[in-house]
Task: structure prediction
Amino acid sequence: MFKTILVGTDGSAGAEAAIQYAVWLARRLQARLIVIHVTDIRILEGPLLADVAGAVGAQPYPAMLAQVKEFQSGRATEILEAATESCQKQNVPCETVHETGSLVHTMLECEQRADLVVLGQRGEHAQWHRDMLGSLVERIVRGSTKPCLVVPEKYRIPQKVLIAHDGSVESTKALKLGLNLATTLKTGVTLVTACQSEQADMSARILQDAHELALARDIKPRAQLVHDNAENAILHEAAAAEADLIVMGAYGRTRIREWILGSTTSHVLRKATVPVLLARGL
Result:
C-alpha cells in the first residue's frame, strides 16, 4: 500500500500531530518514514532581510544574515531531533531531511520519493487563522500527485473510517484505498454517497456497488445515501458515525482542470476535525 511516507514539520502543534499520525501509519504498514523541515528561502533573501534591518536600525545586513542563518539551522536541528525522538519511542526508523527553499516546491520535489504525504492542517501561525486551512498546505495539496493525509492538531488512533463515494474515477480510487486501509488497520467503515433528488436512483446504485465491493472484502459497512450536497453529507455523516478518518477523492465530478482542487474537497479539508486522506494516482 504505502511503502514510504513523507511528513513535513515546522515544529508547530499541527506538525507534531502529523508526525504522530505518520509514525503510527509507518508502524502499522511497516513503511519507511521521511521527516522533512524546510527553511523558507524568503527569510534568507537579501532584499527582505536588508529592508528589515534598515527599518529597525539593526546591525548591517551581512552580519544579520549570518545570525539568521545560524538561528534557522539550529531551529531545524531542534525540530528534526524532536521528530526523531518521537519515532524512536515507537521503534520506527526515520530519515530526516533539512532543505532551504520554497516550502511548496521543495515538498512537491521531495514527495517523488514517497507514496504518501502527511501534513498538519494548520501550521505554526494557526492561532491567527484557526478557521482557515493553512495556505501553504492547500497549495501543496493542490500541486501534489501523491495521496495526501491532512490532519488536525488533535491526534487519535483511527477506529472508524468514512469513505465518500460518488462513482467518479477519483472516488473509486478512494473507495479501494479506504477499504484496503480498513482491512489492514481493522477499522469500522461507513460508506457515504450524496445526491440530489433527481439523481437518487443513480446514486443509490453507486452506493450499492460500493457496498457489494466492501462485502466481497469481508467488510460489513454502514452505508448512507444522503440527500444533500457532498460536503455537508460527508461532514455530517463523519460526525454521526464518529469517524476518525475521512477518505475521499482529491477531485469530484465538477472539476474544471486537475490543478484546481475540487470545491467539495477544499471545503471538507477546511472544516474537518478529523484527518482527511485524499486518494489520487494509485
